[in-house]
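FIELD: query
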Amino acid sequence: MTLTPAQAAALAHVRALARAGRAGAGRRLGWVDADALASSVLRRARITLNFHPDRLRPADGRTVAEALAEDGVYRNQYETGLSNGGRTAFPGGARDEWERGLFGGAYHRQGVRPEERPKYGALNVFGHTDGAAPRFGSCHVRLRTEVSRRSTFCHGDSHLGPTDVGTADAFACVLAGLAQAGVDMRGMAPDAPEAIPHSPGAAPGPGRGGHGRVLDGHVEAQVHGPIVLGRDAEALVLDPSFRGTRTARLLASTGVPLEWHAGFVLAPHEVDARFRGAVMVALAEWICRAHSPHGLLDARVLGHAAAAVVREPHAWAAWGTRDEVLQYIKQLWHVLAWSGRPHGGGASASDGGRA
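FIELD: result
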């Protein structure tokens, strides 16, 4: 597909940085054949876009699932006003400024439209069923390999000003960043097709073929150009708490095959007060009493709570302002994704598009 001048310039800028740093990356990788390793990783890995399908978009009040079903397009924060990270996609905001640095000002040229900006995901190097970055959502779009060719990558979050950046044809610096983070690169070699290791810093649990629970340290991906689901998506991978719901039916209507991962559930008394703070325990109890028919936290229950905060913020005043409570719910999702048990209603298999 044809990129706009701004998108092409952003891709070229990161490619130039990656090629300039290739020699240093090769020294950090040591014995590894960087080109062969990059080819092996990118052949197997897919970019995933983690999202919460039932969150309300400030731009138009639709849920994410409604917008995906009606538009068939995955949009960026500048268009939707919604983010499961920081909501700073406006001129002079934090996202605007880090994009200026990361992409060499390509998106700050006169006449660049909001819809031209990149969409953020992560490269699922480790094959995790909950996606490469579940921090940002309970479900994910798994993109086709072709999309990686018009994407840029960095090791770690872009808001931190990463230096290990790359493109699909200049990936050595990103691999070097992974190696320095403690990943055994031998497990990614071309002659080890099923030996991709568990990512460092992830919660205990299965590696390839299971949940990764990766909240930090992923390989971030920035996709340049539009993401049209019917063309660019290989699958929509959903949390099992959405089985049989309108949300799942909406996503099935996109025509993209549905798959299900094992999900996460947690009882309020299982919430660890040391992870994201003691307020998480009390909030979990409150949400389960008001929004959980089975007394457990799961992705759908947290979605009901987030929608209720937006629609009736006065009912949550004891917990803080609307934005403060939404931040707490975001953190409670981190708790759930980090330590929740499998939901029991899902499997890592195709459902043939059925909801």
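FIELD: remark
Residues 5-260 form one domain.
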